[in-house]
Amino acid sequence: MKMKLVVVQFFIISLLLSSSLFTLSNADSSPCNGKCNARCSKAGRQDRCLKYCNICCEKCDDHCVPSGTYGNKDECPSSCNGKCNARCSKAGRQDRCLKYCNICCEKCDDHCVPSGTYGNKDECPCYRDMKNSKGQPKCP
After folding, report:
1. How far apart are CA 44 and CA 56, in angstroms?
2. What's the CA dihedral at 61, 62, 65, 71 to 10 degrees?
3. Cα–Cα distance between 15 and 31 in angstroms, integer?
């Protein structure tokens, strides 16, 4: 009789432990997952949207994800925005300059943008060495 009781107790304890471990392993551990799920809920390629949303969110110090399902990117300040605004302040095609400057800055781990409005690319090797599909410098 005692042996049956021990086996039953062991079985019940095992069941409880395994279910609690399963719950813990499925928990949403990243502060970005819920925000990105909402952001990408209407995306055509939801898997791709979630992937890149989570990458960007994890890079932000405050884990910022813009509200809504599209646009509103200005809600999450990037450390690159101010640097690129200064870099492109005298550009003839400012919208294009800002676009590529921000792309380059975000791709560089140190978010480096050269000082001044032209030149000085030796300050940021990652920014300097990026090339477009034609092999020309990508970053302004």
Report:
1. 19
2. -80
3. 30
pLDDT in tens, 19-63: 544 433 344 567 788 888 888 888 888 888 888 888 777 767 667
Q: What percent of the chain has pLDDT over 70?
A: 74
Residues in the chain: 140
Tokens for 36, please give them. Answer: 């990105």
What is d(CA 42, CA 39) in angstroms, rounded to the nearest whole number?
8
SS3 call for 50: helix
| Cα–Cα distance for residue pair 89/71, rounded to 1 Å | 24
Cα separation, 105 vs 103, whole angstroms: 6
Is residue 80 within 8 Å of residue 101, measured between CB atoms? yes
Tokens encoding 84: 């690129």
What's the pTM value of the predicted model, to 2 decimals?
0.49
